[in-house]
Each structure stands twice: as structure tokens, then as C-alpha cells.
Amino acid sequence: MESLKDPKYVTDKDGNRIAVMLDIEEYEKIMDALDELNTILAYDKAKRNEPDYLPYNEAMKEIREVRLRNGLK
Q: Record's InterPro entries (predicted)?
């Protein structure tokens, strides 16, 4: 991401920077980039995690095993 063109700082009485004023276009660029980053992070997290479901055949096998253990047909 490019650096900010000309940020303006709001300071407290001691001269400490406490806020930044940006051109609305720069703000929107930052928000768009943040949104894109969040989308990428969510995608990466989803790809990393194992699915929280069982394949059909495995689920049916588990159901049959539980039913047999409980004396059900």
C-alpha cells in the first residue's frame, strides 16, 4: 500500500498525536484494502481448518455402529 499523501495530525495540549485527519479518498482506499485483507484472511483460515462434517459414507458407518451398540437395527 502506498504511504499517505499528507496526513494531518490532531495533537493534545502536550503535542502528542492523538488522531489523524485524512482525505476521504485516502480513507476509502484504506477501508477497501482492509476489507480485501479481511477477506483473504478469512479464506486462508477456512482453507486451513478441517471441515466440520463427515462424508456421507463415514456418517452412515458411524450411525450403524452406534445403533448396533445400542441393540437397534
A: RelB-like
